[in-house]
Structure formats: C-alpha cells, structure tokens
Amino acid sequence: MPIAKPANQVASTITSQHLSDRVLEIQDAFEVSPTKLQQIVAHFVEELKKGLSAKGGNIPMIPVWVMDYPNGTETGDYLAIDLGGTNLRVVLVHLLGGQKFETEQEKYHLPKGMRTTRNRDELFEFIADCLEKFFYKLHPNGIEKGTLLPLGFTFSYPASQTRIDTGVLQRWTKGFDIPNVEGEDVVPLLMDKINEKKLPIKVVALINDTAGALVASRYTDPTTEMGLIFGTGVNGAYYDRVGNIEKLKGKLLPDITDESPMLINCEYGSFDNEHESLPRTKYDILIDEQSPRPGQQAFEKMTAGYYLGELIRLILVELYEEKQVFQKYSKDSEQIKLLYTPYLLDTSFLAEIEGDQDLENFPEVVRLFQEFLKIEPTLDERRLSRALSEIIGNRSARLSVCGIGAACTKMNIKKCHCAADGSVFHKYPKFPERAADSLADIFGWKEQNIQPKNYPIQIVPSQDGSGVGAAVIAALAHARQAKGLSLGLAEAYKKA
Question: Are both 440 and 291 inside the same structural domain?
Fold first, then answer.
C-alpha cells in the first residue's frame, strides 16, 4: 500500500485551528510530488555525467581506484577505521574466504569541539590514540617484528585520489571545519601520527563509506549495484565504465581499458548547488545561510541527518515568535534560550518522536522536550511535534532516493540491490518504507501494479562497509599489486 500523506491525521487532532492550519502550510511547503521527484532525477542524471566530464561539475564523481569486483574469495587480516560525523570506529577484520568474515571492533566518540578544532593535529592524534588503544588491547605484547598490519581508512568526505592509498580533501562536510586540511593528502597526516607512536600499521587504502558499503555487500551479494549512506551525511557509490569517465582519458596506463570497471564515489551531497531543481523552503535557505559553507552541499542540507533536527528547531522558533507555541515561557527563560541554540536538536529527537506509539498522550515526546529543552509541552504542542517530525522525515526519505534513481537511470540498471548504511536508514522510523515508496514514484511501479515486495530495485541493509568493505578493498588492491597492475593515474603510479 502507498504510504499516506503524512501529518494530516495528527494535524487534525490539534485543537488550535491556527496551529493546525500552520502545520498544513508547512506540510505543503515540504511536499515533493512524484512529478517533482522525476524532474529532480532527470537533472541529477545530467549532473552525474557532468561530474565525469573533463570540465567537471558540482558533483565531484571521484574515481576511487577500485577496479575489480569482489568475488568472496579474498582472505587475510586487515585493520579498518571509519571517521564518521559522530564516532571513530576501529575494526580488525578477518577475511576468511567463502564469502565469510569475522570482526573485532571498538567505537570511540569524537570529543566535543573536534569537528571545529583550530589545530588539525588534534584530529589525527586522536585517531592515532584510538588505534594505539585498540592495537594493544588485541596485541598486548605487540606482533612479530617486521610485520605490518594493513589499514583501510574510511574517510567519508570529498577527497581527490590519484591512487587508492591517497586522498586530498576537497572540502569538509557534516559540520567539520578544521583548517589546514582541505587541499592536503590526509594519509600522510595520519601516518605521521601513527609513526610517532611506532605502531606497526600502514594505510594501504583510503575509501569512502559508500564505496565500502557497496564492496562489502557485493562480497556476499553479487546483485548489489550501489552503496548508500543515509546518516549524518548522504551519499552514493556505484561502478561505472572507465570509458565513461572523460576526465581520465589520456591519464591511465594501458592495463586500464575503456571496459574496465571503476568504482565512483559520487559525493552527491553537493547536487544542485545552483538551486535549479530542489524545492527549498525558507528553513532550508536559513540553514544554508547560517552554515560554515553557504552555497555548498545543497542536497545534503535538505536530506541528511545532521540537519533534520535543525529543521524542526527553526520551525519551532518561528512558531514561538508567532505566539503559537510555548507561550508560558518568556524569551529570556532558560527553556527559550535552549530553543534558540543552533543544532541543539539532533535527528534522534525527531526519530524518537516518530517512534512514540502512544498517540493519545505522547509520553516519549514529553520526555524528549524535558530532556533537550526543559519544556513541558502541552498536548497540542506534542501533536504538533509529531506532525512536524513526520513531515521532515518523509521529505528526507523522498529526496534522498533521487541519487539511486539517477545512478540506476544513467547505467540503465533495471533490477538490483542497493546496500544502505547510516543512522537515518537504520534508526529513523518508516525511512526504508518511505524510501521504497518514493522509488516507486520515480520509476512508475505503482502504475504497473507492482507490489512493494516485488519492486525491481530494492534498498537493503549493507554489510559492514566501513570495516569489511575497507578490508575487502585493501585485499583487492593487494591482488592488483601482485599482478603488477596499476592502482591509479599513470603519473602517480610511476612516481610510487
């Protein structure tokens, strides 16, 4: 069954007519029709092609130098780290062959302020410290002298790569804004800190989390054609043909032919920076204007988890200023000062509101407002918050899958699995169902009377991309090296 238009039912229970009307106005502003989705996808396809051209475009379309498909026979022990928007994860992956693997891992929370530290060394020292703790937890007495543990570094930010073991940061995303890293190769920045600690570890592959999700899932499921992240940020990866990548022509060694596959990290959070097709609201415009990088990452700012909590906060601030909500609190009260704090509300705030099953009293909504804002919400304010969460969550899901629609259209993929990871996909109620419903609107499956379980393109949970994917990619790179095949641009390969 198609998912019903959100918020109508909840909005209709709001006793204040003015507030109910405002909710429906906001819903209309956030609505994305099937026709609009199809228009966005058509523009998206052209932008993907432009990113592969010699001139380039807003979407970086980064070749990540994974030029082989995994087949499940890869073996060996590999370290993997994943620098995400909230945590650093360190994993030891045992690839066992036969499409089997085992992992050991730890997660380390990024210290407060790390995203915007003024000293880049703090970030890479933190990563090296975590690696040191993890290494000696597993190997208290060290490992055999002369042995190096290969490390796959999942660095989920736009980075230019001339080889699989390099990555020059183009620009920070997901709220990071650390100086003197953009324009630098992050691999030696990390290796300097690893070597200072005399750790027997070497970065052999720099990957993106979407590339990892694709390769890890394809290791066990050969029908996988895309890797996706729906989390703090939003992104996708797929295999293209080298012959389609105009910007690589004349720059490759002969062993890489036009028919060779090339994994592309799209970094399509930057889609539509010109604001030609995405239906921005005034709240989206405000988020962009107040961000560290105005005019950049337009698609991400409308879809990704980092921004969803800020959307509801901006709406609640506007309604407060209209004297529609929280009127028992003065503007100089602690509660309203919290409400005016940018990015105080994260995506979990909306997800847990949508997860509240008691539609009469909304006790979880009460708890969340007390926890985040110290506000005691009225019943109408609880109903309002539920309606807004559904509106925001629904639009995020609908827009997010435009990247899938574009990549599959470009490559003429009619049937496949798309492997998805990220906190929004896994933890936001109804996101997978809304995403599937939106793909059906893009491709016209409803008109063909195709049932959801039979949709030709299915979004499925990914394997451990940042761990297993990084390990498999490192193994593929080792295999290419053993065959004497190139791992990057001709110039970079000759210098190595």
Answer: yes
Q: Is 209 a catalytic residue?
A: yes
Query: Are 214 and 68 within one domain?
Result: yes
Q: Catalytic one among 20, 156, 270, 277? A: 156
The interaxial angle of helices 431-443 and 379-400, nearest 10 deg, is 50
CATH number reported for the structural domain that contains residue 11 in this entry: 3.40.367.20
Q: Which one from 68, 165, 209, 464 is the annotated catalytic residue?
A: 209
Residue listed under structure tokens 């066990």 = 220
- Reading the block at residue 329, the tokens are 């609190």
Domain total for the chain? 2
Give strand pairing partners of 103: 93
- Are 196 and 238 contained in the same domain? yes
Could you give the CA distance from residue 495 to residue 164 in angstroms, rounded to a whole number? 14
Dihedral of CA atoms 100, 105, 111, 114 in degrees, nearest 10, equals -40
- Distance between CA atoms of residues 302 and 279, nearest Å: 9
Backbone angles phi, psi at 64, to 5 degrees: -105, 10
Question: Cα-flanking dihedrals φ and ψ of residue 366, to 5°?
Answer: -60, -50
Residues 27 and 83 occupy one common structural domain:
no
Whole-angstrom CA distances from 470 to 73, 130, 279, 394 are 15, 18, 36, 32
**How does pLDDT run across 386-444, given as a tens digit for each residue?**
999 999 999 999 999 999 999 999 999 999 999 999 899 999 999 999 999 999 999 99
Kindly provide the residue ranges of all beta strands, DSSP E only, lying in 135-200, ordered along the sequence: 149-155, 159-160, 168-169
Mean pLDDT on 439-450: 97
CA torsion, ordered 24, 30, 34, 38, to nearest 10 deg: 160
HSE-CB at 111 with a 13 A cutoff on CA atoms is 12
CB neighbours of residue 388 within 10 Å: 25
**Domain extent for 276:** 1-63+267-414+416-455
Under the banding of pLDDT at 50, 70 and 90, the label for residue 7 is low
Biggest CA–CA distance in the chain, Å, is 74
Q: DSSP secondary-structure letter at 243? A: G
Summarised one tens digit per residue, pLDDT across range 33-61 is: 999 999 999 999 999 999 999 999 999 99
User: Mean pLDDT for the chain?
Assistant: 93
CATH of the domain at 163: 3.30.420.40
The per-residue pLDDT for 487 is 86
Contact status, residue 214 vs residue 238, Cβ threshold 8 Å? yes
Give the pLDDT score at 369: 98
Token reading at 50: 């432009």
**Is residue 156 among the annotated active site residues?**
yes
Domain co-membership, 19 together with 93: no
Q: Do 450 and 466 belong together in one domain? A: no
Phi, psi of 418 (to 5 degrees): -120, 120
* Mean pLDDT score, 369-394: 97
330 included as an active-site residue: no
Catalytic residue among 22, 89, 163, 171: 171
H-type alpha helices, 401-469? 402-410, 423-427, 431-443
One domain for residues 302 and 222 = no
